[in-house]
Write a structure and sequence with these properties.
The structure is a single chain. With 150 residues, the chain is an all-alpha fold. Helices cover 75% and strands 0% of the residues. The chain has two domains: 52 residues, no CATH class; 68 residues, no CATH class. Helix 2 packs across helix 3. The relative contact order is 0.04. The mean pLDDT is 79.
């Protein structure tokens, strides 16, 4: 390879514009012993992988692996605690509901009157809501007049 071509190729390599084939050619060139003095720096760059492949680590490495069981036990304990608290408080709530008098009426006549009174209260609330809807209806009529005028 001529020195001028080599300089051009090295410039392209430094700019990151070389193709894989051009990089293979550079590696092949720098693996030979006929490298000019000014390009000896590049020789170590292109031959680094070949030298690094020869390095071996001969000492055996023993990896210490301890199972992380303390967190597993904590998770199991938390799950048991959640289940026990749910069962305890659920049972407590059921007992409170059983102990309370929720207004059960034994006499059918009284139950009928109480139901009638309750439904009357509900009807009054609905009628108040209907009165508010009349205002809304009047508002919509006025709004439609303005929209038609424009």
């Amino acid at each position: 390879m001529e020195l001028n071509d080599l300089r051009i190729l090295l410039r392209k390599y430094e700019e990151g514009k070389t193709s894989l084939q051009e990089e293979r050619d550079l590696k092949k060139y720098f693996s030979s012993n006929e490298v000019p003095q000014e390009f000896l720096v590049y020789k170590s760059i292109f031959n680094f992988n070949d030298e690094a492949r020869k390095i071996e680590y001969s000492r055996k490495v023993q990896l210490k692996s301890k199972p992380k069981r303390k967190w597993a036990y904590a998770g199991v304990a938390a799950s048991i605690l959640i289940i026990m608290s749910f069962l305890f408080f659920n049972d407590l709530t059921n007992k409170k509901l059983e102990d309370q008098n929720l207004g059960t009426i034994e006499d059918p006549e009284q139950a009928y009157l109480k139901t009638k009174e309750t439904l009357q209260m509900v009807a009054e609330v609905f009628n108040e809501g209907r009165e508010d809807l009349e205002y809304l209806e009047e508002f919509n009529k006025t709004k439609n007049k303005f929209i038609k005028e424009q």
